[in-house]
């Protein structure tokens, strides 16, 4: 399957909101936090990071789509999907530190790093595993869910 641009955007929105949201609820109590931060502060920062991943990720999809036009099969190898977390993580961290999508009080580096890396790995594993089994038609419609 070669995902279309619309399919990639739909998949990203679905996976970040549903799987990323569930993972954030599960991992939230275990994230490192400063001694003066409450659990609500940790969740506020994690939700801000998810929002930034969603918005910045949709923009990244247009950049990735343009770059893929130079490849023969118009798609990335699977490992590239995992490694794109590096550049996306850097951009999202800068956005969250500057108060985007809302001011969550600044995300401590360790909290952000643990949350982002674990979430990115969970999302990548989901898309390359269970999603291909549970959403069979997704694979044959260019990654579109609707």
Describe the overall structure.
With 146 residues, the protein is mainly alpha-helical. Helix content is 71%, strand content 0%. It is built from six helices and no strands. The longest helix is centred in the middle third of the chain and has 30 residues, at 39-68. The protein is globular, with a radius of gyration of 16 Å. The mean pLDDT is 88.
Keywords:
6 helices, mainly alpha, 146 residues, 71% helix
Chain-wise SSE layout:
Layout: H1 5-27, H2 39-68, H3 78-97, H4 109-128, H5 130-134, H6 136-140
Helix pairs in contact: 1-2, 1-4, 2-3, 2-4, 3-4
For the largest beta-sheet, the strand count, sense and barrel status come to: none
Head-to-tail CA distance between termini:
16 Å
Quote the beta fraction: under 5%
- The count of DSSP E runs of length 2 or more, i.e. the number of strands, is 0
Average pLDDT score: 88
Shape: globular
In short:
This protein is 71% helix and 0% strand. It contains six helices and no strands.
